[in-house]
UniProtKB/TrEMBL annotation:
Its EC number is 1.3.8.7. Keywords: Oxidoreductase. This is Acyl-CoA dehydrogenase. It comes from the Bacteria. The keyword Oxidoreductase applies.
Length: 400
């Protein structure tokens, strides 16, 4: 085993829920799959701007794609803590934030459908997606809406046994490859600022439906292997049977899933930081300057220790919040805090990793360069830092 692999493995700490033999095995299985099936091809997929559809099927066959989804809907079982373990293992094996976002987009596209429990929708969308046969995405963000879910303007007007949908979505992860989009639409009254919660519904819109089009793929600073799209709906007729849950409950359904999404982004943050630290620590042992290894210099050793401190704090706190969520506690504010902590850790640690690698770290295609670009999105997606800080202030009683 190489020094680099040793360092990477040592950073996956057995804190609370990861201490079970089953989760250790799951993490190693995810890491081994990534080393074998993903890492050798990741730069190719970055250059292509998307993942191959075959990877979804291969990941499902490996028993990793559907972790955290109940077996009753076609999942592999387990809970959020097991999903966290898979993400950690994928980063340990050399995966990336863009890979997680694209390969596991169903983590935000399917929970609403699975929770609502309509047998027809589960059979048509949940089961084949968890089997790696289809790809789903979540359509919430609009050109003028940003993080404000209550401001949804895409309209769905009832016409017999169909809804007629008109509107647009943007920044939609996996939008160019998706076979369906779980879409937030306004089925209630006209949008009124500050009073738009009650009229939002979720509607599954399938690719190929007349009037539904992918306007364009969007190029990004990072997450290059994760395709992102701008979508439009023009007199798009969608069966009423594709409604997820009761009409008008979309805002609540979306809000209920935000905790898991934010914890997931926090995991991406500290996992990318841990991987970058492992790579930098190994490089500091191998790289010689002026006749000595980088790690022989106190300034470098202290920098690595500080990076380690930040990773451990972010990981330990995120683990605790995730465990509390699984236990049934309300952790809306804590999930925001975990995400903020992990985001700042990722930005700081990945920055220092590139610095330690020097010119090599600045080269496109180096792993630390990829993480450096990818983590910048974490403070924007799933609720921008500023939005979540204000939400936390209100929930914690700090707002006037």
């Amino acid at each position: 085993m190489s020094a680099r692999t040793d360092v990477t493995t040592s950073l996956t700490g057995d804190v609370v829920f990861t201490a079970t033999p089953e989760r250790r095995a799951l993490r190693e299985a995810a890491a081994a799959f990534t080393r074998r099936e993903i890492a050798p091809h990741l730069q190719e997929w970055e250059d292509a701007g998307a993942l191959p559809r075959e990877l979804h099927a291969a990941t499902a066959k490996a028993g990793l794609l559907a972790v955290g989804f109940d077996e009753a809907v076609g999942g592999d079982g387990g809970d959020l803590l097991d999903s966290v373990t898979v993400t950690e293992g994928i980063f340990e094996g050399g995966g990336s934030g863009g890979l997680i976002a694209s390969l596991f987009t169903h983590g935000i596209a399917l929970p609403h459908i699975a929770t609502a429990g309509d047998p027809d929708l589960v059979d048509r969308f949940v089961r084949p997606t968890l089997a790696g046969e289809t790809i789903g995405s979540l359509g919430i963000t609009e050109p003028e809406g940003g993080s404000d879910v209550a401001s949804i303007r895409t309209r769905a007007v009832r016409d017999g046994d169909h809804f007629v949908v008109n509107g647009a979505k943007t920044f939609i992860t996996s939008g160019t490859r998706a076979d369906f989009v779980t879409t937030a639409v306004r089925t209630g009254g006209e949008f009124t600022p500050g009073q738009g919660h009650g009229g939002v519904s979720l509607l599954v819109i399938e690719a190929g439906t007349p009037g539904f089009s992918v306007d364009r793929g969007l190029e990004k600073m990072g997450w290059h292997c994760s395709d992102t799209a701008q979508l439009s709906f023009v007199d798009c007729r969608v069966p009423v049977a594709n409604l997820v849950g009761a009409e008008g409950t979309g805002f609540v359904q979306i809000a209920q899933q935000f905790v898991v999404e934010r914890i997931g982004l926090a995991v991406q943050g500290y996992a990318a930081a841990a991987r970058s630290l492992a790579l930098a620590a190994a490089y500091a042992q191998e790289r010689e300057t002026f006749g000595k290894p980088l790690a022989s210099r106190q300034v470098v050793r202290h920098k690595l220790v500080e990076m380690r401190r930040q990773v451990e704090v972010a990981r330990t706190y995120t683990h605790a919040v995730a465990a509390r969520h699984v236990a049934g506690e309300q952790v809306i504010a804590e999930a925001c805090l975990a995400k903020e902590t992990a985001v700042k850790t990722a930005e700081a640690v990945c920055h220092e990793a590139v610095q330690l690698f020097g010119g090599t770290g600045y080269m496109r295609g180096s792993e630390v360069e990829r993480h450096y670009r990818d983590v910048r999105l974490l403070g924007i997606g799933g609720g921008a830092n500023e939005v979540l800080a204000d939400l936390s202030a209100r929930l914690l009683g700090y707002a006037a």
